[in-house]
Each structure stands twice: as C-alpha cells, then as structure tokens.
Amino acid sequence: MLLPSAVLIAKILFLLLLANGTPVIVKKLLGAKLAYPLDGGNSFIDGRAFFGKSKTIRGIISSVLVTSIGAAFIGYSIQTGALFSILSLSGDLASSFIKRRLNLPPGSRALGLDQLPESILPLLFFWEALELDIPTAMTVVFLFFFGELILSRVLFRLNIRDHPY
Questions:
Q1: Angstrom distance (rounded) from CA 152 to CA 163
Q2: Is residue 163 part of a domain?
Q3: Domain containing 24: what range?
Q4: pLDDT tens-digit profile of 57-74?
C-alpha cells in the first residue's frame, strides 16, 4: 500500500507535469499558430523583452485548461488545477524575466532557476490546503528538478522540445 505522502507527491508531480508540459506539447502540435507572446513583444525599461517570444498566451491558456481537467481527474477541484497552473507558470515567468535581465537568450539553460520557481511557488501557496510538510515538499522539488532534467532530454530526442534542457 502506498503511503499517503507518496500519493500526494505523485498528485503534485502530475499537476506540475501538466502545468509545465502542456505548453511544450501544444507548441509542437500547433507550431507558430496562435502563438502570441504574453509580453506582446514589449520590452522592459532595460530594453530587453519581459519574458521572450516563447512565453505565449496560448501556452498559459492551454496549461490552465489541461491542468484544471487533470486536477479534477485526480480528485481536486477544477479551480485548484487552474490556480496550480497559474502559480507554476508564474514561477516560470519569473525565471524567464530574471534570465532576460541576466542577458541570457531565450531557451538558454539556467540550472535551478529553470526548475525551482515553478515547483516551489504552487507548493507554498497550497501548503496548508495540501497539508504539506517540509520532507514532502522537498521530495516534490527534488523529484521535479531531476525529473525535468531527464524528461527534457527525452522530449528533445523525440523532437518535441527545441532544446535538451
């Protein structure tokens, strides 16, 4: 029998996978169709893009929809799935914003910055609702961090991702 924390970890990882993987899959399926940049192509005061072309309205909408449905499938509300997706993507957007300020090109690798905000932000928000504890949260972050590194390489080899990271 699985321990309750193992089931919780699996559910959270499932939601993180949906929230962050859906935009990648949708990009592969639709290419440039409906791929409007979230920042509208506008620049920050430093002259660099807010997020970059790869962060799209299509990616946000598809992630929220798919994660909401996935949440309902595993026993959470649709609203929980939507908010989980928004929080995870907010962490991803924050890391993209920081990467642009560091003058890193879109698609570049920033180990830790590419994985941690998108997993930690929803965990912090849902800490009480999910009855998380530090070991469970650390396990989720650890598994997401290394799972994302491995899955990114697999998706690159399958020609789904543009970069192996």
A1: 8
A2: no
A3: 4-157
A4: 999 999 999 999 999 999
The C-alpha atoms of residue 69 and residue 47 are separated, in whole angstroms, by 38
> Does any domain span residue 165?
no
What sign has the CA pseudo-torsion 30, 58, 12, 106? positive
Number of structural domains the chain divides into? 1
CA–CA separation, 15 vs 84, rounded Å?
7
C-alpha 114/C-alpha 95 separation (Å) is: 6
The single-letter code of the amino acid at 73 is F
- Going by the DSSP 8-state scheme, the letter that residue 43 receives in this structure is B
Give the DSSP letter of residue 153: H
- 66 C-beta neighbours (distance < 10 Å), count: 19
- Whether this prediction's pTM lies above 0.85 is answered by yes
